[in-house]
Amino acid sequence: MNDVMMLRDLGLALKVNLPDFAGNTTAYEATWMRVIDREIFEMAFKVTSWLVHIKDGVITPLSCAMYFSEDEAKRITLGKMLNMNAKEILNDIYKKRAGEFYGREK
User: Fold this and answer.
1) d(C-alpha 49, C-alpha 16), whole Å
2) Which residues contact 44 (CB under 8 A, 6 or more apart)?
3) Whole-angstrom distance, CA of residue 78 vs CA of residue 18
4) At what angle do helices 86-105 and 70-81 cross, to 10 degrees?
5) Could you tell me the pTM of the whole model?
6) Distance between CA atoms of 98 and 106, rounded to whole angstroms?
């Protein structure tokens, strides 16, 4: 997993339209990002983070990186019980989501 890239330090200002629970979109400026898999990145926006797909200069939000399915939540809980590294658990979950996205894309 690549390190976090602080966008302000790179002189970049990336704005992404993120949907809310009602389906309305609002533009938010990303503060940092890191590569998850190929064209899938985790990006932080103020108090939330999202998995996004970036291709040909187009940033598409895929899923909120802070909400987890029941299976993902169980995996996180089990990992904590086994004293596993939380970052590694989250990276595995995000990579699985990226793999599912690429599977749907084909």
Assistant:
1) 12
2) 30, 31, 32, 33
3) 31
4) 150
5) 0.85
6) 13
Q: Which two tokens stand for residue 10?
A: 């790179």
User: What distances in angstroms separate CA 63 from CA 8, 53, 74, one per listed residue?
Assistant: 23, 10, 18
Average pLDDT value for the chain: 92
Q: pLDDT tens for residues 15-64? A: 999 998 898 999 999 999 999 998 999 999 988 999 999 999 999 999 99
What is the reported pLDDT for 34? 95
3-state class (DSSP) for residue 32: strand
Domain spans of the chain, in order of start: 5-105
Q: Which two tokens stand for residue 98?
A: 């990226």
